[in-house]
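Please decode residue identities from the backbone states below.
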């Protein structure tokens, strides 16, 4: 099936109806997180609705940031930038890193991913040029062996960042992507 344009057309058709019927009114809130909370979560599709329900988060309660693996990859990348903006501009007081069991980034084989890139038309010379420019694509794409350790590392990256105030509580939890059960890996209250 050719998806080119079909998903966007489907979304736009739905959106027109959503706006016409004023369905958005149920979601009206302010830009400031009511619970003064930032959540860094994995982009896994199983967490799209489960995570907010399992954490009692409704629209307007939290700033939710998502990426592959709920990981902080660079101390001055977009994840830390978003957290810093949430803290200083939107008065967030807590940051919770939410990893999950059975994460696709766990033991991700970056060699296989690079081969898939090549099969989709990315030429070897592009990957080689990036490598010679100091970007090891395979290392950059590499996942992690332990979700728990990845959560701890992300919590430490946030906690020890020079622009994060010491009064911000940084927590780390792991979620079951089927039941929503949370297990604490790092309790930032202690």
């Amino acid at each position: 099936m050719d998806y080119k344009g079909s998903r966007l057309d489907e979304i736009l058709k739905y959106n027109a109806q959503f706006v016409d019927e004023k369905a958005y009114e149920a979601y009206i809130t302010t830009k400031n997180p009511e619970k003064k909370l930032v959540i860094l979560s994995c982009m896994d599709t199983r967490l799209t609705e489960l995570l907010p329900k399992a954490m009692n988060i409704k629209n307007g309660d939290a700033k939710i940031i998502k990426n592959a693996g709920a990981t902080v990859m660079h101390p001055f990348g977009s994840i830390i930038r978003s957290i810093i903006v949430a803290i200083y501009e939107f008065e967030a007081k807590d940051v919770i890193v939410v990893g999950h069991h059975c994460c696709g980034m766990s033991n991700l084989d970056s060699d296989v991913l690079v081969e898939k890139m090549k099969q989709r038309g990315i030429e070897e010379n592009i990957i080689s040029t990036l490598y010679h420019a100091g970007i090891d694509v395979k290392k950059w794409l590499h996942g992690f062996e332990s979700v728990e350790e990845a959560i701890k590392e992300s919590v430490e990256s946030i906690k020890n960042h020079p622009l994060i105030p010491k009064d911000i509580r940084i927590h780390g939890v792991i979620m079951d992507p089927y039941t929503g059960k949370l297990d604490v890996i790092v309790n930032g209250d202690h």
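Observation: The mean pLDDT is 95.
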